[in-house]
Amino acid sequence: MLKRRRWIFSLVAILPVLAIFAYVRVYPIGEILRLSLHKWDILSREKPFIGLANFQELFGDSLFRTALFNTSIIAFGVLIITLPLALVLAALIHHRTRSRFASFYETTIFIPHVVSLVPAAMAWKWIFDARLGPLNAVLSVFGIPPQAWLFDPVLSIVSIIVLCSWQALGFAVLIYLVGFKNLPKSLFEASKLDGASGIQQFWFVAVPLLKPITLYVSVATLVSAFNVYAQVYVLASDAQGAPGRQVRVLVLDMLENTFRNYRVGYAASEAVVLLVIVLILTAIQFSLLREKGTR
């Protein structure tokens, strides 16, 4: 009887939180799914149900395919750079935890993650500037001619990947540091007695034990990178100053279809596709790490 009362009390206590979560998180997803099945024009009173017509038009749209390709390149580029670099930096900082500069290292690396996106992007826009930017000034020392980082389509994507990786690195390092601090010291001591070097301890002991952390960091980094917006909006402006036109990405494409073309249903179908892609990639990451962990 007492156990049942506790269970009922716990359920009643958590219901308000579940209700808020459902309203803030679940309801918008359902609304987006509903909108994607309608021809929802802001300027029109008629909003007829059209089924999957938005999705059929979507995959025949060359602009959408370009946005999807660019977003995927940016997301996987950020993931490939951030994960190994964060793991190595976290290992180095953890190795120097007794140093009086350990807190300084942690703070310095984490600062980019808490800096507002727009000021950070403006600073990097100056760094990448073709005429006045310090990056081209440094490259000129090595005899490399100035590069149009923000106007060349390929270099614009590279610039966005660098900026997003710089911002994502601090969070990934912090999470890895938590993982390193909770690793059992007995395993490292045993491997050291067996003659394992520091690199061998890192690769064969630490990395396998940090697989759950790697899973979380990879999913969080990939989801965040697929939702890239402000970085592109600020960095990749065209010659006339139109934001984000040099590199078309999914979120900017959705905003343009919503507020410029007033096609809310079509933009909602893009959001549904983005949600499905993120869910599929998350499931793949879970399955890959689970398979590696069982071997």
Automatic annotation (TrEMBL):
GO terms for biological process: transmembrane transport. It comes from the Bacteria. This is Sugar ABC transporter permease. InterPro entries: ABC_transporter_permease, MetI-like, MetI-like_sf. GO terms for cellular component: plasma membrane. It is a multi-pass membrane protein. Belongs to the binding-protein-dependent transport system permease family. Keywords: Cell membrane, Membrane, Transmembrane, Transmembrane helix, Transport. It holds the Pfam family BPD_transp_1. The keyword Cell membrane applies. It is found in: Cell membrane. Residues 68-285 form the ABC transmembrane type-1 domain.
